[in-house]
Fold this protein.
Amino acid sequence: MLSGMLFVFLPLLFGYLIPLHKKKPLQHINAATSHLVTVILALMGLSLAALDNLAQNLNQIVTITAVFFVSISVCNLAILPIMDKIFPLNSEGNKNTLPLFKMILESAKLLLAVAGGLLVGLLSGIDLSWVEEASELILLLLLFLIGIQLRNSGLSLRQILLNKHGIIIAAVIMSTSLIGGLIAALFLDIPLQHGLAMASGFGWYSLAGILMGDALGPVYGGAAFLNELMRELVALLLIPTLIHRYPVTSIGYAGATAMDFTLPVIQNCGGIRCVPIAIVSGFILSLSVPFLMLFFVSL
């Protein structure tokens, strides 16, 4: 396990201090980040293979995932439609057919990385004592690159602070997700701080799975990954259906993915007016994930 929050935040901070003025280096960083995420998720699968009583642990992962997903989703969707009425947002998208199946397959690739690591670990019989240390080193590099991406996302602090809809959506998702996490923790009879940490992924399944797995073990890591992945998959199905009547709900439920993976769907279905709101909301939520998650697991 990483020795403290400082060792996680330092690479993120150092990365954020690096401005890039050319697109090509940033494209290389984006590609490297994608590859590192795949590698570290495969290592998560290897760490699952090293668990004793694997069948029992997999059952536990599914149970934890189901409880957190239902609890958090219900809390999110209980409040977001109310925000649509209080803070209405006009959407003007089209109804073009979207490559939803292709986008779902992209998410499934990451799930296959975990499954592939698990199968290799189970079938190869190799020594897996090195997996935890390797995961920590790759995590530090990944956070450094994520810091660079955040710095060069095109958003200034001024733009974030002045976007009312983006701030409201991010605040609602944070607060309702944390309430859902507390409810799930009580239901599962686990420490409340673990429930709050599990609820702090906001749809960023790769980083949530990595951080929770590093802090609390592969069972929580696997559950966090699946919980946030399910949010993204459901968001991809909800956005085309709901965004014309409930744009705040659609953008909000997408969570951190509203600034990247689900953004093309939001833009196509909701129109250009939804784009800056989605980016700001997703940016705030993305920036909050490592801070909140590591804060709660350190309590």
Observations:
- The mean pLDDT is 84.
